[in-house]
Amino acid sequence: xxxxxxxxxxxxxxxxxxxxxxxxxxxxxxxxxxxxxxxxxxxxxxxxxxxxxxxxxxxxxxxxxxxxxxxxxxxxxxxxxxxxxxxxxxxxxxxxxxxxxxxxxxxxxxxxxxxxxxxxxxxxxxxxxxxxxxxxxxxxxxxxxxxxxxxxxxxxxxxxxxxxxxxxxxxxxxxxxxxxxxx
Length: 183
Description:
Blueprint: E1 5-11, E2 16-25, E3 28-38, H1 45-63, E4 67-71, H2 79-98, E5 103-106, H3 108-116, H4 123-134, H5 143-160, H6 171-177
Parallel strand pairs: 1-4, 4-5
Antiparallel strand pairs: 1-2, 2-3
Helix pairs in contact: 1-2, 3-5, 4-5
């Protein structure tokens, strides 16, 4: 594991996608940025996916992350929403993999537990804990931004504990491990 590295965290969404970038210096995480990608102005789902790819690619080019972590979609009651969320996550993954950034997924409960100690924590509790850890002054206007930051910090905590995450080291690795998902 590199001593100094940058981690990009993504909270996929089809109306608002959150992201956070941290820099690890030694064994200490420092906040680089957090924000959201607004997608609700696009009525066509394909245009939303295009925008996600463009913005995540832009973040990768700007911050040059060594790793990218994403929140895995969770199964809800609405299958169509799950499908759209999975597409958004896939497009974000593809943007990272296109630049050979290893991609790792974490379940929402794992992220919350990693940040707050409870897998049932609310978005507000996660945001409060992150504010305490990183000491930023202004709260983001959307909790999706802190969710993206939480994904990045979760990956830092998990990678430091030497837990295997099943991540991909690039597009070739993803294809090799998922031959039936790629044609």
